[in-house]
Amino acid sequence: MTGEPVLEVRDLCVDYGVGKGGVRAVTDATLTLRRGEVLGLAGESGSGKSTLAYAVTRLLRAPGVITGGEVRFHGPDGVLDLLEADAATLRRIRWDQISVVFQSAMHALNPVARIDAQLTDALRAHRAQLGPAERRERAVELLRLVGIGEERLRSYPHELSGGMRQRVMIAMALALEPRVVIMDEPTTALDVVTQREILDELMQLKDRLGFAIVFITHDLSLLIELADTIAIMYAGRIVELADAQRLFHSPRHPYTLGLLNSFPALHGERVRMEGIPGAPPALTALPAGCAFHPRCPFALERCAHDVPRLTEPAEPDGAPADRSAACWLHTGGEQVPEPLARVLGSTL
Ligand code: ATP
Ligand code: SF4
């Protein structure tokens, strides 16, 4: 991706708890979201995806603590370090510039307020210049944007289907035309047909309005379709970061390869699903070295004690890597196993 950065995360660390009882849930996360881009965050449950997103938006709740790093937001008034921003600045930016769509709309919407009140509240708080009639007009327009008719404005959340509630959440997230929308498993609770409809609409809206999306899911196959760039997380670390198509056709990290082998290909011949043996580690008992080594089919001797950093792998065809992986197989001198040495295009 070549667009201008809108959100830059550098060396972000997040712990749950402090002192002896504390555990590190996100370690040295570094990534860049660009204008109009969809950045996917994938990984098994507990890998730290939500923690990273909530830390970035400063929505992290105790016992979560940000213990290091930098989050630079490129807003209309210049660059702002979100980790240094005071409460008033964060209030001004949230919804207006950065909005979040949570996993469960039922829990995120106020159950005792009608949809119109919930939509117009955000407009009243952030767009004081709009009168009541203009706010209502904008609420109607927003619902229409996500495929919901005006007659639903007076409904309570429980009167809407799961898909409609999720659409309302998306309308609310877009109400103030933010630069960044963070979506944490936004459609997981919905059936696949509704999920597909909402995601198609979302992508059309993104192209029209130009916002960037951080899309969090455990469903890597979904991200390969939706995302421009994908970051794979394992045990709190980003272990691979690459263009979505390159990641799909020529993964470099054994964990990415395992995730790709865990779901059926949409096209091509039927193959036996291999999955990944074992389970992700508990944060209280992270293996030394590469945290993936007890499950890795390609582990080397050093993997049990040296932590690999995210670096550009040497590409077999000598092309610039333009992606990164945290794996000792790619730091030179090792015979890289065939599935992790593919050149993009050789498997298309
Ligand atoms: P999921 O897909 O299940 O939402 P995730 O990848 O988003 O998982 P997180 O929810 O960010 O992962 O959790 C990362 C780690 O932090 C997990 O090991 C989890 O147990 C731990 N964790 C999350 N919330 C807390 C908390 N409030 N207190 C202690 N540990 C927590
Ligand atoms: Fe496997 Fe070692 Fe690479 Fe970790 S560093 S993914 S254990 S080969």
TrEMBL record:
Keyword Heme: no
Molecular function as annotated in GO: ATP binding; ATP hydrolysis activity
Domain ABC transporter: 7-260
Keywords on record: ATP-binding, Cell membrane, Membrane, Nucleotide-binding, Transport
GO BP annotations, alphabetical order: peptide transport
Subcellular location(s) of the protein: Cell membrane
Keyword Acetylation tagged: no
Origin superkingdom: Bacteria
Alphabetized CDD domains for the sequence: ABC_NikE_OppD_transporters (cd03257)
Membrane topology: Peripheral membrane protein
A Pfam family per the record: ABC_tran
Record's GO cellular component terms: plasma membrane
Record family assignment: Belongs to the ABC transporter superfamily.
Name under which the protein is recorded: Dipeptide/oligopeptide/nickel ABC transporter ATP-binding protein
Record organism: Kitasatospora phosalacinea
